[in-house]
Amino acid sequence: MAYVPKFRHLIKLVFGMRDPAAAEGLFLEGSIEFESGELETARTMFLYGTRLDPNLAGNFYNLAVATERLGRPRDEVVGRWEAYLEAADRDPRQSQE
Predict the structure, then answer these.
(1) Rg of the chain (C-alpha set)
(2) pLDDT of 30-89, one tens digit each?
(3) How far is C-alpha 80 from the geometric centre of its chain's CA atoms?
(4) What is the distance between the alpha carbons of residues 21 and 29, in angstroms, rounded to a whole number?
(5) What is the distance between the terminal CA atoms of the chain, rounded to a whole angstrom?
């Protein structure tokens, strides 16, 4: 089933507002969908999560993996991996070794 964002998330997405807590929730929900084989639904959740918190690298990583597993065009997959690397540099939760 296709994911439809909650109204409060949709408003924030439309107006470009950040919501790190909602992004983390989408990360968790998307991970569950991903594990159950609902890759397109998971991919959509991760995509919205990247927009709600552009510093949460986990959503970018999972978006790249889901995009790749869905067999999307190579340039889209490469773009998702590049976005993940950029997010990982911004994410304070990522170890800087």
Answers:
(1) 13
(2) 999 999 999 999 999 999 999 999 999 999 999 999 999 999 999 999 999 999 999 999
(3) 10
(4) 12
(5) 40
Q: Confirm if 34 and 77 have CB atoms less than 8 A apart.
A: no
Region class of 83: left (phi > 0), else alpha (psi between -120 and 50), else beta: alpha
The pair of three-digit structure tokens given for residue 16, joined into one six-digit string: 């470009």
Nearest alpha-carbon partner for 51 in 15, 79, 75:
15
Contact 33, 69 (CB under 8 A): no
The confidence score (pLDDT) of residue 13 equals: 79
**Can you list the pairs that 37-42 forms with residues at least 24 positions away whose Cβ atoms lie under 8 Å?**
38/1, 39/66, 39/69, 39/70, 40/2, 40/66, 40/70, 41/1, 41/2, 41/3, 42/66
Other Cβ atoms closer than 10 A to 8: 10
